[in-house]
TrEMBL record:
It comes from Deinococcus oregonensis. Residues 23-280 form the EAL domain. This is EAL domain-containing protein.
Length: 282
């Protein structure tokens, strides 16, 4: 594997491998990744803009391949979805591990924060998904209110009434729901109001667009998303915040939380523990 920089994320992609056989081999290897303990979760803080407090951490999956090194989720999640492994064992493992780690942080006396877990449409679409979440909570001892699930708007909008029913069942566990990559899919405002959602995560592409022009760019779109989120009483998160200028502007607009390389990169649980012990960052 290539040697990666300290925080850099050196990636093997299937495009680079070129051939179909590489893809099949990778999918084969993925079958054993959980039992061989090759998967790991990194955690990236979601920080309250006013106070600098960590309100949540997002669990982001990493695969340490024995030969290829660190492989990006952008590469292997599609493979995990095609093969169904994203449901079992990978998705179940992610949920269980994120809950376990969060309880460990709580027991270590850190201030409470939520853990946010990405959920594939394949997981969410299953009848037994709510039971899987319930057992992850029960087994770890984590209270439901400390778990948030991240879903994409495209998924939720595809079959609204089924989504609403599934979300209501999750709500009964105390679990909260975030819409991930907001603004990139197709949300119907009417449906958005009907769904029991807590958090809206503005996609990174809009934050990048802030730099396009000093006054215009994506500013009006971001302002509209923040206003809409607040009108629906949602917590609004800006993803992919990389510069002070972006952070400052988002703060002026009343955006609630920031997530991005500027304040904290995704990092292994142990490192994050140190970061959290150090206290507020802004
Ligand atoms: P996502 O859910 O939108 O996660 C945010 C991605 O943005 C992460 O990439 C994170 O490392 C990256 N990021 C955060 N801050 C910044 C920033 O300031 N600048 C830039 N350039 N990037 C930033 P990552 O970890 O490579 O994950 C990629 C995607 O893989 C995630 O996008 C998510 O869709 C998926 N994913 C990750 N873990 C899981 C998982 O456990 N289950 C499922 N189903 N999908 C996952
Ligand atoms: Ca996410
Ligand atoms: Ca996202
Ligand atoms: Ca994304």
């Amino acid at each position: 594997a290539k040697e990666a920089g300290k925080n850099a994320f050196e990636i093997f992609s299937t495009e680079q491998s070129g051939d179909l056989r590489g893809r099949f081999e990778l999918e084969g290897d993925l079958h054993y990744a959980v039992q061989r303990s090759e998967l790991e979760l990194h955690y990236q803080p979601l920080i309250e803009i006013g106070s600098g407090r960590v309100r949540a951490v997002e669990a982001l999956l990493r695969w340490h391949h024995p030969r290829l090194g660190l492989i990006s989720p952008a590469t292997f999640i599609p493979l995990a979805e095609e093969s169904g492994l994203i449901v079992r064992p990978i998705g179940e493992w992610v949920l269980a591990e994120a809950c376990r780690q969060t309880v460990a942080w709580q027991r270590a006396g850190l201030p409470n924060f939520r853990v946010s877990v990405n959920v594939s449409p394949l997981q969410f679409g299953r009848e037994d998904f709510v039971e899987t979440v319930a057992s992850a909570l029960a087994f770890s001892g984590l209270e439901g209110r400390w778990l948030e699930l991240e879903l994409t708007e495209t998924l939720l909008m595809r079959r609204v009434s089924e989504s609403a029913r599934q979300l209501a069942r999750l709500r009964e566990l105390g679990v909260s729901i975030a819409i991930d990559d907001f603004g990139t899919g197709h949300s119907s405002l009417a449906y958005l109001q009907q769904l029991p959602i807590d958090t809206l995560k503005i996609d990174r592409s809009f934050i990048l667009g802030l730099d396009d022009s000093p006054q215009g760019g994506t500013r009006p779109l971001i302002q509209a998303m923040i206003a809409m989120g607040h009108a629906l009483e949602l917590t609004v998160v800006a993803e992919g915040v990389e510069t002070e200028a972006q952070l400052q502007w988002l703060g002026q607009q009343g955006c609630d939380l920031t997530q991005g390389f500027l304040l904290a990169r995704p990092q292994p649980a142990e490192k994050l523990g140190h970061f959290l012990q150090a206290g507020p960052t802004v």
